[in-house]
Design a protein that fits this description.
The complex is a heterodimer of chains A (253) and B (454). Chain A starts with 9 loop residues before the first strand and ends in a 5-residue tail after the last helix. Chain A has nine helices and seven strands; from the N terminus they run βαβαβαβααβαβαβαα. Chain A has a single domain, classed as 3-Layer(aba) Sandwich (Rossmann fold), CATH 3.40.50. With 253 residues, chain A is of the alpha/beta class. Chain B has two domains: 116 residues, Uridine Diphospho-n-acetylenolpyruvylglucosamine Reductase, domain 3 (2-Layer Sandwich); 234 residues, Vanillyl-alcohol Oxidase, Chain A, domain 3. In chain B, a hairpin with a 5-residue loop joins β8 and β9. Chain B is globular, with a radius of gyration of 21 Å. The two termini of chain B are 30 Å apart. The chains are: A alpha/beta (253), B alpha+beta (454). At the A-B interface, α5 of A face β2, α11 and α14 of B.
Chain lengths: 253, 454
């Protein structure tokens, strides 16, 4: 359960190797927290993450989860709940950035990104919120991206999945009002992480820790949408309306 | 019978940690049908929602409110007892019994609590050091168990279940009605002596030596003052006024009881609220200064002595959208140094609102989960969004645990299962009784889930 100052007992990270997801979980951990579950395709690969979260009195464990295998999602949620009880905060942080060039060569690469980032996210978010409705409380954090605010030629497959996910999350967030549970959308800008290693940083770039701090602050204040950094909200208010001729030529990776 | 539920978002009086439940207002005869219609998330009874935290919430489950009328309460003037439905409020009962020369045995700082809630939380008041908590005065009660059977229990009849129900936070069954002893009164006034204490040491000294001469005693403390003024306070002690103390003109109307309603805080308050460091500092200064250094024998009405905040409807809204929590703990006698350290921690943090109460407790009763223990209890209201509040409270939790103290379940909105199991050494004994009457976990609450009570 969540207490009066927003401390939670049970945290689930979908995408247990996501640096942003784990940073949010770490920021959420307090002496009230009893369990953090990291869900990823290969649980053995998150052992180092488990160790980094370890703390006295906190159970950290990894479980197998495949975002692309949507048929397994209902059973996955049932198992998690059977093992650890009510879900207080679920962080939906998985996603493939992929390579636009590879997508250009092989349509199946694009399909895989679209399936995991959008279909997989929709599927698990529906299962999680169904459970939230039954338990009468819970918070789902959905990691969107500014890449979905206006897609650009350098990563429009990825950007389009985030655009779709963001639109889905907005509707879901509204639908959950009155259920006792809530859905919050986080829109980070360029984040320095393993996913973006070697890429040229876009303006207003940030780090997983900053995203995590702003996310948890927003969660405790009951925000519906959080931009990280906050200034991107205003930047994209302008970007969204730039003439195409200019937008296409913007030097942003 | 048709069971008709509404889906409601519920919080405690502190307006934090909302959760959703299927709710219904039911009459006594329909309780069993509504209980049958619950799912795996269980059932909980809720009175007037004055518990500060999540004690009267049951996320995803059923939350029932029992209808009740003070007109149906039975006053036995000979025995000095009252039998009332669990859903009836002390507010409604006082309107009936005060004019007839009786007062409730225990009242908290608000009269807007139900009889059922008073038993389930084993509430205490300003007379605890002399007369104990509410459960001490209950002669018998009617309890519906999870299987729908109805049982008469009391201190002599099935005492283990009775004392598990007193302070049991509604987790042993549905309290349908209770019979409890009343205090006979000659007037509806209280004679109150006031003493202003320049710091916490003076207050502790004063209470340690003088409290036992009074039926009622309570102190307000300024938890924003630091240094030599740490815990400066005002101590009010008194008793019900005797008829002989009144002039013949006043004596004619000695039992008049008319609680006033001054105003209601509107539902629209700026989200940041009105309670902050500045407003609280100003309030505390004025509140302290307005009291005389020492005054003997002033008269106060029952509402103004016992329930001053009840004159303002929905005052909890003053804290804004973030809500607030009321942190209350008790420390045993001999731990006055630790009490002072905690007061200093709160004072230095500058988070406390003006609502701070210090009270000296008397003996405990036999209920395993009853809060009062011989010693001191401090109650502090704090805006829930205060910076660094979580860490501050965990630090104080630790100090409370180290000192053999405990937290009050009816107020709690923050602490951990560990603090509760340490603070209530008889928790396991209570759990065994609870399980024996509710093997299928029919009774559940957010508080019970968060603190692993069941």
């Amino acid at each position: 359960m969540e207490n009066a100052v927003g401390e939670v007992q049970n945290i689930l990270v979908l995408g247990g190797r996501s640096e942003i997801g784990v940073a949010i979980a770490r920021e959420l951990v307090t002496p009230s927290t009893q369990r953090v579950t990291l869900a990823c395709r290969q649980p053995v690969e998150s052992r180092d993450v488990e160790a980094s979260l370890a703390r006295n009195g906190l159970r950290v464990e990894s479980v197998s989860f495949d975002a692309a295998d949507t048929a397994s999602h209902a059973g996955f949620v049932d198992n998690i709940v059977a093992g650890s009880g009510d879900l207080d905060v679920v962080i939906l942080a998985f996603g493939i950035l992929g390579s636009q060039e590879q997508c250009d060569d092989d349509a199946q690469s694009a399909v895989k990104i679209a399936h995991t980032n959008y279909t997989g996210a929709v599927s698990i978010a529906m299962e999680i919120t169904k459970r939230f409705r039954q338990q009468g409380h819970g918070r789902l954090i959905i990691l969107s991206s500014v890449a979905g605010e206006r897609t650009r030629k350098a990563n429009y497959v990825y950007g389009s999945t985030k655009a779709g996910l963001d639109a889905f999350a907005q509707g879901l967030s509204d639908a959950m009002v009155g259920s006792g549970a809530s859905v919050m959308i986080v829109r980070p800008g360029f984040v320095h992480s393993a996913m973006t290693t070697g890429m040229k940083a876009a303006p207003f770039s940030t780090t997983p820790d900053v995203v995590a701090k702003l996310t948890v602050k927003g969660l405790r204040a009951g925000k519906r949408i959080v931009w990280t950094p906050g200034i991107l909200r205003w930047v994209f208010m302008v970007m969204r309306h730039l003439p195409v001729a200019i937008w296409r030529r913007m030097p942003m990776g | 019978m048709e069971t008709d539920f509404t889906t409601s978002r519920l919080t405690g009086w502190g307006q934090t940690s909302p959760s959703s439940a299927r709710t219904a207002e039911v009459s006594r005869g329909d309780v069993a049908a509504f209980i049958k219609d619950s799912n795996r998330r269980g059932v909980l009874m809720r009175g007037l929602g004055r518990s500060y935290g999540d004690a009267a919430q049951n996320a995803g489950g059923v939350v029932l409110t029992l209808k009740g009328s003070a007109q149906e309460a039975v006053l036995d003037v000979e025995a000095g007892t009252l039998t009332a439905g669990a859903g009836v409020s002390l507010h409604d009962l006082l309107k009936v019994i005060v004019p007839r020369g009786f007062f409730v045995p225990v009242t908290p700082g608000t009269r807007f609590v139900t009889v059922g809630g008073a038993v389930a939380s084993d509430i205490h008041g300003k007379n605890h050091h002399v007369e104990g908590s509410f459960g001490n005065h209950v002669r018998r009660l009617t309890l519906m168990l999870a299987d729908g059977t109805i049982h008469e229990i009391g201190p002599e009849q099935n005492p283990s279940l009775f004392w598990a129900t007193v302070g049991g936070m509604g987790l042993t069954g549905v309290i349908l009605d209770a019979t409890f002893a009343l205090i006979p009164i000659e007037t509806s006034l209280c004679t109150v002596n006031t003493i202003r204490c320049r710091n916490i040491d003076v207050l502790i000294e004063e209470m340690s030596h003088g409290d036992d001469d009074y039926r009622y005693s309570v102190a307000w403390a300024d938890l924003l003052a630091t240094g030599s003024r740490l815990g400066r306070s005002v101590l009010w002690r008194g008793d019900h006024t005797k008829l002989a103390e009144l002039s013949s003109k006043d004596a004619a109307n000695a039992l008049r009881y008319q609680p006033r309603h001054l105003a209601t805080v509107p539902p629209v308050v700026p989200s940041f609220g009105f309670v902050n460091k500045l407003s609280s500092t100003v309030f505390n200064e004025l509140w302290f200064r307005k009291e005389p250094r020492r005054k003997e024998g002033g008269h106060k009405s029952i509402p103004s002595y016992f329930h001053p905040l009840d004159a303002i409807g929905s005052w909890n809204r003053l804290y804004g959208a973030g809500g607030f929590l009321q942190y209350q703990f008790a420390l045993p006698f001999g731990r006055e140094d630790e009490l002072r350290q905690i007061i200093e921690k709160v004072a230095v943090s500058k988070t406390a609102s003006p609502l701070v109460v210090l009270k000296r407790f008397g003996a405990s009763n036999p209920a395993p989960l009853s809060f009062p223990m011989p010693g001191w209890t401090l109650t502090v209201d704090i805006p829930a969004r205060a910076e660094g509040l979580g860490i501050l409270l965990h630090t104080i939790d630790e100090m409370v645990m180290q000192s053999g103290g405990r937290h009050y379940l009816a107020k709690d909105a923050h602490t951990t299962p560990l603090a509760i199991s340490r603070g209530y050494p008889r928790l396991e004994e209570w759990k065994q009784i609870q399980r024996s009457v509710d093997p299928d976990r029919r009774w559940q609450s957010d508080l019970a889930r968060r603190l692993e009570l069941i």
